[in-house]
Amino acid sequence: MKLTKHNAAFLGMLLTAALTLYGQAAYADIAGQAQFVNGNVQITNAAGQAHALQKGSAVHEGDTLTTDKGASAQVKMRDGGFVAVRPDSRLKFDKFVFTGEIDGNEKSFFSLLKGGFRAITGLIGHKNKENFRITTASATIGVRGTDHETFVVLPGSELAATVPAGTYNKVNAGETVMTTDKGTIHILPNQMGFASAADQLPQLQPVNLKLFTAVPPPAQQAGATEGAARASTVVDGAIQDPNVAPENAVPANPSLRPIIQDRGPTTPPRVF
User: Fold this and answer.
1) pLDDT tens, 209-229?
2) Which CATH number fits domain 31-244: 2.60.120.1440, 3.40.50.300, 1.10.3490.10, 1.20.140.10?
3) Do 213 and 246 touch, CB atoms closer than 8 A?
């Protein structure tokens, strides 16, 4: 069959469309990109294959990050959010769906298996709060557009000798909700929630300075009153020397622009 200019143009269009769809499919399950890696950090995919995480590595849906003692990593999510994984931790990226638009189908689900991480919510979770979720063995944590930290102390671990085992959640900005089978609590800035087990009611407690760094309470918004805070919460105003802050810092004013393509290596902020 003779290839006419018309047929050649049509075939070219089909090839371009196929390549575009292939690229979108290959990119679809990418949750984010490692911007900083300190020490030995392993990434394990859903098939159980593991390798060392490096700066610039893609983190896919279903991947698990495991940090050694003294190691840490920071991932910029495709929706513009940030995740900083602390030393001696294991975090799984359960589900990530983001097309570049907030259409109700986006999802960002994590499982924290041990240790801790800090997250600044990206575009996912700002409009549809139920689409961002962290699951641990003892609690589920949701967000209300926030900068927050979650830590899991496993029973029998070295840390469990100094602090009770369970799930801890501290808010730096915004609000989170902590839920177990017994109920839900709301956590506001510089507050900490704790859940010892799934069959126990979560509680508000003073910020545990063995796990987190407390900061001064945020300035009140103009026109706000002290009674505007939830009456069921107790603010902990303890302040700790920032020089002993855990290795989980993230940018102070992150941009929430989504990652729409691989722009190559960037200079990341330190995770200290």
Assistant:
1) 999 986 655 454 334 433 333
2) 2.60.120.1440
3) yes
